[in-house]
Backbone:
């Protein structure tokens, strides 16, 4: 039997998540060791490699997004109001470092394939939840599904643009107004 772990795994994951979010996948393992106060042997024993740590950081970030935002899309009654609340909540839970998922998408060529697939899955599930809200909304229920899918992609694009704008220092009030305008568009 091995020795018990002498570190807080959640602390390590939170620190690594913030580093990846702020610096991207390109951050050096040396910086990760320093920020997490873990030895290379301990970190590799827990996560195998940098990719394993990044996958765990993506899961950690996803759990926080699910806890703070995604649940809104599943609340009844599903409607456009849920989508707007979700978009605003997502933006409000993003700071100057942006969103780990979005930041990783903008540097897709530098992340491992498995990590890219995990990010794709996150956006797919987000899109499905938004689409289900649209299909359930009485005002949108008359539109054909193909148009609702395009509108879903549009709303995800608005969210991604809002996150980039936030990183660029655009005031939250202006981003909220942009979301209001996007919500008035119809498929």
Residues:
């Amino acid at each position: 039997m091995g020795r018990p772990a002498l570190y807080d795994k959640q602390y390590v994951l939170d620190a690594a998540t913030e580093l990846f979010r702020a610096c991207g996948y390109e951050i050096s393992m040396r910086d990760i060791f320093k920020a997490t106060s873990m030895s290379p042997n301990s970190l590799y024993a827990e996560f195998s490699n940098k990719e394993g740590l990044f996958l765990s950081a993506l899961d950690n970030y996803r759990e926080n997004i699910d806890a703070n935002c995604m649940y809104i899309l599943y609340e009844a009654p599903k409607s456009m109001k849920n989508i707007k609340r979700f978009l605003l909540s997502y933006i409000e839970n993003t700071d100057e470092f942006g969103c780990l998922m979005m930041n990783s998408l903008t540097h897709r060529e530098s992340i491992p394939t498995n990590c890219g697939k995990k990010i794709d899955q996150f956006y797919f599930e987000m899109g499905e939840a938004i689409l289900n809200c649209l299909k359930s909304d009485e005002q949108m229920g008359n539109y054909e599904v193909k148009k609702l899918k395009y509108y879903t992609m549009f709303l995800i694009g608005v969210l991604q643009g809002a996150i980039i704008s936030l990183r660029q220092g655009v005031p939250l009030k202006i981003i909220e107004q942009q979301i209001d305008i996007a919500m008035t568009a119809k498929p």
